[in-house]
């Protein structure tokens, strides 16, 4: 069994891993227990009552958090013609078509968001094996395949996050930073959970949201008492 470090022993004394915490209690405890020398992310994991083996029960969506996630987002845009300059003016770091694909094939992925105009998808599909596993493949549903390049880039820069369930039916996402004001973390959390609820597949039966866990990059996960939520 892995031995706990002094820091994690100290943190563990502050919390009860089996207890259900209100969102307000959780945020206060995570802030109090963060002792690392960098600004940790605030992460949420939601265990859903779906069958991930059935395509009509998988969820995949995006949302713009009211206070962003507190980090710089590098954006790659696959497009051509006049959209190239539009993407650059909107703030995209990487813009192109075949040459951008070649660059990614050689150098790998060094961006956090990918956007494509509709006429670029045939080219982008060649990168499916690279972008797909990282959750970066542009899609119509997430709004990352669009001819409104300017808006898509600005959304990505302003805290838009894309989420989907994993093979176990769990959705993971970052919703902010530990140095955020408590109210901002709570508002981002509420916005994210509300989006998950709206994405419930019609074929999903029984309890939809089974468990919600809030954590920091290096901290323990706290189970949220869903009865305390006012969503």
Automatic annotation (TrEMBL):
GO MF annotations, alphabetized: rRNA binding; structural constituent of ribosome; tRNA binding
InterPro entries the record matches: Ribosom_uL1_bac-type, Ribosomal_uL1, Ribosomal_uL1-like, Ribosomal_uL1/biogenesis, Ribosomal_uL1_3-a/b-sand, Ribosomal_uL1_CS
One Pfam match: Ribosomal_L1
Single Gene Ontology BP annotation: regulation of translation
Superkingdom as given in the UniProt entry: Bacteria
One GO cellular component term noted in the UniProt record for this chain: cytosolic large ribosomal subunit
UniProt entry keywords in alphabetical sequence: Repressor, Ribonucleoprotein, Ribosomal protein, RNA-binding, rRNA-binding, Translation regulation, tRNA-binding
Function: Protein L1 is also a translational repressor protein, it controls the translation of the L11 operon by binding to its mRNA. Binds directly to 23S rRNA. The L1 stalk is quite mobile in the ribosome, and is involved in E site tRNA release.
Family of this protein: Belongs to the universal ribosomal protein uL1 family.
Subunit structure: Part of the 50S ribosomal subunit.
Protein name: Large ribosomal subunit protein uL1
Taxonomic source organism: Buchnera aphidicola (Muscaphis stroyani)
């Amino acid at each position: 069994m892995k031995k706990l470090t002094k820091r994690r022993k100290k943190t563990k004394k502050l919390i009860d891993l089996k207890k259900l915490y209100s969102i307000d209690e959780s945020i206060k405890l995570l802030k109090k227990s963060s002792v690392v020398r960098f600004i940790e992310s605030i992460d949420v994991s939601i265990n859903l009552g779906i069958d991930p083996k059935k395509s009509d029960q998988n969820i995949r969506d995006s949302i713009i958090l009211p206070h962003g996630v507190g980090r710089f987002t590098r954006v790659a845009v696959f497009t051509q013609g006049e959209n190239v300059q539009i993407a650059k003016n909107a703030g995209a770091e990487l813009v192109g078509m075949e040459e951008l694909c070649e660059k990614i094939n050689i150098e790998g992925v060094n961006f956090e968001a990918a956007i494509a105009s509709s006429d670029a998808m045939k080219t982008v599909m060649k990168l499916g094996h690279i972008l797909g596993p990282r959750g970066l493949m542009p899609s119509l549903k997430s709004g990352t395949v669009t001819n409104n390049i300017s808006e898509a880039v600005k959304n990505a820069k302003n805290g838009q996050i894309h989420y989907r369930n994993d093979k176990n039916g769990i959705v993971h996402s970052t919703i902010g930073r530990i140095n955020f004001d408590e109210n901002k973390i709570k508002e981002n959390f509420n916005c994210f959970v509300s989006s998950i609820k709206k994405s419930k597949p019609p074929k999903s039966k029984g309890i939809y949201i089974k468990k919600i866990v809030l954590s920091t990059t290096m901290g323990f996960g706290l189970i949220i008492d869903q009865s305390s939520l006012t969503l």
